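lol forgot to send this yesterday, sorry. struct tokens for the thing we talked abt
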């Protein structure tokens, strides 16, 4: 029987939960998230990753810059309460006249650098948006298979990276630059980039990679691998980010359709691993399912465009926080529960059970939030949970427990986040409770001090 002893007085650093955020893009020039701004603000994301693809038409003619389409998507992200992580992955026709994923050098390097300079200047100098993160390329190790037009090698990526990030830094010296946004974190492109940047003193503020896998342990292993690699280059002080991730897709689709509670529990398990391994931030992919069209990907080869559209229409339909009709999927509520973990992380003893917990004390609200989940790659058993909460101020508390129901077909939030307990209780600084948690069950306990001696409803 898993037992949790949680001392609200034993806290560590701020969880800064908003750094575990999401991404959207690679599909359309339309903002895609603008109908979900209120729901996204509630998740308190600090970052939303955005693909800067050719459909934004930012450089239609020599010396002509067009920010109109891209502005709409950037403005939507800002309206959602986040800052964009700008992934530069376009190939303007004037600089790349031939569609060929292996041709990665622009025909005029000075024009390319001027384009990047003007792009960053537009947002960070002219509009004063203060966009912090600029990423160079997307999945450069697999090219069009990742829905983007560049296929780099360890030999040619570092030089392209250098020219691009120096243009970014000329426009905004405070900007953070990085990459390579690898599909495979073990790709030789990353060590080649780190060696190049270390030797030539080229700025690299963060390194990034992606993962789609059903086993959270593999996410942990990727972080350990990258951090071990970074130790070889002590001059580089890099943040780490997994800025595309989710369950596996393709052949696993039917398994996840049959077990809808797996993905929302998996999300929390993965983010807990990220916290424990000291990952700087992440961007879950993605926010909204959107149907793709081969016409959208006119900058790719015929096969590349067909593959990208097929992925959006069939393979990726379980990835979104919102489905194709804009309805909140169970994954959305995992992030909503995580967003309530504000304030200082409560230090917990490690448990041997499949049931784990994350807890935080928010001094502003004078409340404790405890998130518990029951996860294993192979189905865990139902568990009886015993929980003891200590370190509370004397007084009356509102006690609430919510249960995420991933199986309900209801569109009502109160059916998806069920209220199991809602009561006030007096305490001398200790509270005890027990309950069952099903396989892949997710529950949250909120314990809030009521200064008026009445249960606070909000």
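and heres what i got for the seq, position by position
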């Amino acid at each position: 029987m898993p037992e949790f002893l949680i001392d609200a007085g034993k806290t560590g650093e701020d969880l800064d939960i908003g750094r575990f955020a999401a991404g959207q893009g690679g599909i359309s020039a339309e903002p895609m998230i603008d109908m979900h701004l209120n729901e996204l603000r509630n998740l308190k994301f600090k970052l939303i990753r955005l693909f800067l693809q050719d459909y934004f038409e930012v450089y239609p003619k020599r010396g002509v810059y067009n920010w109109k389409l891209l502005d709409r998507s950037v403005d939507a992200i800002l309206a959602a309460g986040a800052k964009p992580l700008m992934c530069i992955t376009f190939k303007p026709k004037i600089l790349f006249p031939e569609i060929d994923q292996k041709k990665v050098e622009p025909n005029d390097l000075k024009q390319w650098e001027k384009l990047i300079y003007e792009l960053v200047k537009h947002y960070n100098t002219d509009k004063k948006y203060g966009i912090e993160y600029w990423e160079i390329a997307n999945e450069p190790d697999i090219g069009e298979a990742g829905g983007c037009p560049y296929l780099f090698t360890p030999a040619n990526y570092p030089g392209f990276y250098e020219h691009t990030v120096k243009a970014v830094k000329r426009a905004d010296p405070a900007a953070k630059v990085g990459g390579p946004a690898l599909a495979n974190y073990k790709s030789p492109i990353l060590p080649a980039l780190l060696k190049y940047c270390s030797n030539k003193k080229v700025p690299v503020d963060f390194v990034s990679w992606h993962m789609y896998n059903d086993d959270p342990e593999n996410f942990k292993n990727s972080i350990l691998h990258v951090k071990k690699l970074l130790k070889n280059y002590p001059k580089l002080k890099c943040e780490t980010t997994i800025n595309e991730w989710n369950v596996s897709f393709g052949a696993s689709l039917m398994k996840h359709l049959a077990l809808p509670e797996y993905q929302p529990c998996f999300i929390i398990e993965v983010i807990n691993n990220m916290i424990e391994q000291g990952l700087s931030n992440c961007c879950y992919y993605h926010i909204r399912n959107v149907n793709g069209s081969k016409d959208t990907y006119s900058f790719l080869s015929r096969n590349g465009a067909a593959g990208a559209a097929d992925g959006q229409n069939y393979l990726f339909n379980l990835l979104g926080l919102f489905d194709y009709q804009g309805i909140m999927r169970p994954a959305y509520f995992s992030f909503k529960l995580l967003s309530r973990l504000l304030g200082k992380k409560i230090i917990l003893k490690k448990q041997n059970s499949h049931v784990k917990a994350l807890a935080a004390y928010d001094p502003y609200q004078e409340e404790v939030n405890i998130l518990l989940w029951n996860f294993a790659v192979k189905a865990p058993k139902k568990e009886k949970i015993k929980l003891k909460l200590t370190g509370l101020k004397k007084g009356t508390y509102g006690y609430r427990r919510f249960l995420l129901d991933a199986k309900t077909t209801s569109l009502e939030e109160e059916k998806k986040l069920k209220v199991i307990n809602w009561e006030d209780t007096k305490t001398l600084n200790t509270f005890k409770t027990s309950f069952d948690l099903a396989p892949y069950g997710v529950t949250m306990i909120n314990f809030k001090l009521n200064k008026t001696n009445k249960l606070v409803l909000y």
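The CA atoms of residues 84 and 350 lie 35 Å apart. anyway ping me if u want another try
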